[in-house]
Amino acid sequence: LAGFANLAGPPQAHSELHADRGIVRLALAAPHEDIRFELISLGNNLRQLGDNDAALPFVRQAYEGYNRLYGPGHLASVISARGLSLVLGELGQPKESLQIIEPQISAAVERLGPEHRQTINTKVHQAELLDLVGRYAESIAVSESVVTPATKLFGESGELTIISHTMLAGALALVTLPLAFLLRRHMRAQAPA
User: Fold this and answer.
1) What is the pTM for the complete model shown?
2) C-alpha Rg value of the chain to the nearest Å
3) What is the dihedral of CA 57, 58, 62, 68, to 10 degrees?
């Protein structure tokens, strides 16, 4: 399984992954951590190749295995939950994605701490999902909660710092622009003719 991460190129990788999927499926029930790591790697490779349908069983199995093995909030559980959540989001299932990710974030804050890089990374993803399902106030709150720790950990120009600011700005715009539009329309209606 380890060889899948180092295949020559995307077209070859995609065909080889599909050709050998039957062998990989035999390993799905294996309890060994290396197998779980390979499953999530394989799922991530398929996701990056744009084949989220094929990636789903692998990332789901890795997530379920890590969660059983280590419990919620463990680094491996959080990373695998985020992998599953990304695939579900790409498949147009942001609500299920949130159901996977939210309990992991709560547990990660307790086990890893609120300023751990994976806690921050996963909360940024949560803010994006909240925005997608129209829960803008919650997206703003989550985005605001990660700006300072992201800046502290990654610096002003760090990727997650920039993404945190972008998510916050986007959520604020979705909330404030409609209000500004309504206020402007009201002011025009009240202005003398």
Assistant:
1) 0.71
2) 20
3) 30
